[in-house]
Design brief:
Helix content: 40-55%
Strand content: 5-15%
Radius of gyration: 37 Å
Shape: extended
Number of strands: 8
Number of helices: 15
Order of helices and strands: EHEHHHHHHHHHHEEEEHHEEHH
Strand order of the largest sheet: 1-2
Structural class: mainly alpha
Oligomer: single chain
């Protein structure tokens, strides 16, 4: 992995997975999925008999802030529900350091408590593929699912670029992360920032290397002595930023991994986005650098327009060049130079034989409707009136009927 092994891995209680993680990623914290454990509570405890114990156990797991508090409340609920001899409860209590929030909160997990991301991917692809699919059906349905995901990603990117969030606080930190985070991550950060207004930060340690704050509940006369104006860079994870989707994935040998050809528009756009983002990030620290970058961007805009217009003219001229049966182009191409003068260039291109679309064939049943013999006869003679039996008019325009 380019950034090193993961800090935390969340899985179910499969012993084989636990053994593999300890061997491959010995420095990673292996955490058990709390959803799988909590989902078995009602089954193991017998919810119909121990309904009170079930609710107390859930409060014990979710509402305990410290390890000591959890241990005391757990033992109290187990004794009260007479579950001391239950082997399953004894086993989950022994491994509490791997799933209870009070024990695992020291390892940053970005709010993830369960293996919901993997389960979500499984649930997503289950709507497209099944065990009854043939290999060809599986490939088609899988590609259709990927296309749907990419479409949703394009929609999210459109929202990030064109929508401006509504700020709730006058803090500069909120405006800072609004320019960095995606729209979805910003909403989560904004909620936490809004809730933090109910707390007061007190500086406990402040030196050149570290600054430690103590958060307490805000009182009526409380005041914030030292406010954190900006979020430090080390707390901004790249996977939450807008520029993450423009990065390229590199394999262990240094080659780019992509689902499309190297000449595709998406690949070229990704490379240009990455270069532009690095230039902009480097110039933001200086006003002179920003002005220099802006001037160069304007100069490049004119050069790019000239190159694009020139290539368009060349393509238009090449369409008028005759190509023989071997695909060899031999002729004079007239192009416009920058000064506006016409120059002749002898262009010889050799291309492989191109396959054109087949000639259109009239399908059976296409075209006008076939008419029967009686209908053809009536069309030649004209329509006959049903009243006077004359040809050339119908009964609505019959002179005999109108005269009466």
């Amino acid at each position: 992995m380019p950034a090193g092994p993961p800090k935390i891995i969340i899985t179910d209680q499969d012993p084989a997975i636990g053994k593999a993680i300890s061997q491959v990623f010995p420095g990673s914290f292996h955490r058990y999925c709390i959803w799988h454990i909590m989902n078995k509570l009602s089954e193991k405890i017998g919810a119909s008999v121990h309904q009170d114990s079930l609710s107390e156990l859930k409060k014990c797991v979710w509402d305990s802030d410290t390890k000591e508090e959890f241990d005391a409340r757990w033992i109290e609920v187990i004794d009260k529900g007479k579950l001391n001899n239950n082997e399953w409860f004894s086993s989950v209590y022994k491994m509490r350091s791997r799933w209870v929030p009070a024990y695992v909160k020291h390892v940053f997990s970005a709010g993830m408590l369960a293996s919901s991301r993997a389960e979500g991917d499984h649930a997503f692809f289950k709507t497209y593929v099944s065990k009854d699919n043939t290999l060809m059906d599986f490939i088609l349905q899988f590609n259709r699912g990927l296309a749907h995901q990419r479409h949703e990603e394009l929609i999210a990117n459109h929202v990030d670029v064109n929508q401006r969030p509504v700020f709730k606080t006058p803090m500069m930190m909120e405006r800072q992360v609004a320019e960095i985070y995606t729209h979805r991550i910003f909403k989560k950060f904004q909620l936490q920032l809004w809730l933090s207004w109910g707390c007061v930060l007190q500086v406990t340690i402040d030196n050149d290397s570290v600054c430690v704050y103590k958060a307490t509940e805000r009182k009526k006369d409380g005041s914030l002595k030292k406010q954190i104006e900006y979020l430090p860079d080390q707390y901004i994870l790249k996977r939450w930023t807008r520029t993450t989707s423009s990065d390229l994935v590199v394999e262990e040998h240094g080659k780019y991994i992509c689902d499309f050809g190297d000449d595709s528009l998406l690949m070229r756009q990704t490379i240009l986005f990455k270069v532009a983002a690095e230039l902009i990030d480097g110039a933001l620290v200086s006003k002179e650098a920003c002005k220099l970058l802006e001037e160069n961007f304007e100069s490049m805009r004119k050069k790019i327009k000239f190159v694009v217009d020139s290539s368009t003219n060349v393509r238009g001229s090449e369409e008028n060049v005759t190509v023989d049966s071997c695909g060899v182009c031999d002729g004079n191409v007239i192009t416009n130079t920058a000064e506006g003068h016409e120059t002749d260039q002898n262009v010889v291109h050799c291309h492989p034989q191109q396959l054109n679309d087949p000639l259109p064939v009239r399908a059976k049943g296409c075209g006008k409707r076939l008419k029967g013999g009686k209908e053809k006869t009536m069309a030649k003679k004209g329509r006959q009136c049903s009243i006077c039996k004359q040809v050339g008019h119908n009964k609505q325009k019959c002179p005999t009927l109108n005269s009466q």
